[in-house]
Design a protein that fits this description.
Structural class: alpha+beta
Largest sheet: 5 strands, antiparallel
Distance between the termini: 17 Å
Number of strands: 5
Order of helices and strands: EEEEEH
Shape: globular
Strand order of the largest sheet: 1-2-3-4-5
Radius of gyration: 13 Å
Helix content: 10-25%
Number of helices: 1
């Protein structure tokens, strides 16, 4: 997957990301993103929600249990890709 997207940070600055993967878990969609300006950066895992027009919105995961489960699934996806 070579898709790139631009998001705004908390200060309103544009930041470009590489979409590493999108995947579903328990009927919820998630995205794994890597900032393009810092290859040493950690991967961002975000929930994909949809607005009233059906457009995707990326949202941070606040629930620790949900985040742990998403991390586990993403790590499994990465392991499968390496095999």
């Amino acid at each position: 997957m070579n898709e790139k997207i631009v998001l705004l940070d908390e200060m309103g600055n544009k930041k470009e990301f590489q979409v590493l993967a999108t995947f579903g878990l328990d009927d919820i969609d998630y995205a794994a993103l890597l900032p393009l300006d810092d290859i040493e950066a950690l991967t961002y895992l975000l929930r994909i929600e949809y607005d009233e027009l059906g457009e995707p919105i990326l949202v941070g995961i606040d629930d620790e249990d949900e985040l742990e489960e998403v991390i586990e699934v993403y790590e499994e996806i990465q392991k499968e890709r390496l095999q």
